[in-house]
Automatic annotation (TrEMBL):
It comes from the Bacteria. Residues 111-175 form the Rieske domain. Its cofactor is [2Fe-2S] cluster. PROSITE patterns: RIESKE (PS51296). InterPro entries: Rieske_2Fe-2S, Rieske_2Fe-2S_sf, Rieske_Fe-S_prot, Rieske_Fe-S_prot_C. This is Rieske Fe-S protein. One of its GO terms (molecular function) is metal ion binding.
Amino acid sequence: MAREGQRAPGLDRRSVVMGAVACCAAGGAAFAGPEDTLPQKGDRLVLADGAKAGQAVTLDGLPVGGELIEAVAVDPQGVRREGSRFSKIILVRVAPDQVAEDQRAHAVEGVVALSGVCTHQGCTISGWNHETKRLSCFCHHSEFLPAEGGRVAKGPARKRLPVLPLARGEGGALMVAGGFIGKPGPGAA
Ligand code: FES
């Protein structure tokens, strides 16, 4: 379980360091990715990594108070949308009434999805603290509020994390209801 001061499952120190190196060495040009690697309306979400990679992300697999999930979108033909760092999607779940009113249309029963790329310098967002309802980036310790549209709670990041609108599919499967709201990746507020 990824809580404050911890990393998401599968993320070791090397992963974090490599993420930091990749973000800072590559510069802005590395963040340009083809549109078809981004999640699109009608895609389904599957677990990105680990022993259960490829399994559908469902409401049952995301209990309130549970861990951060890393997912990838799969198009209607069954092809994973990946190949860009912007393909990264993270999901967390809070109680439905803790989702800000203006964000509820994008959430499913308290589940919210966001870009997994920090808007500061592009590291992977991997920390989640259910108590404070904050996501965190371990590169420079920015924090974001996923239930409030990815708003920045603590810098140095200044731009909110783009939200990915969700829809409920058959059997509680989580589907993509639209593209990211906002451009994923580093940028100004
Ligand atoms: S890359 Fe700097 S806080 Fe995330």
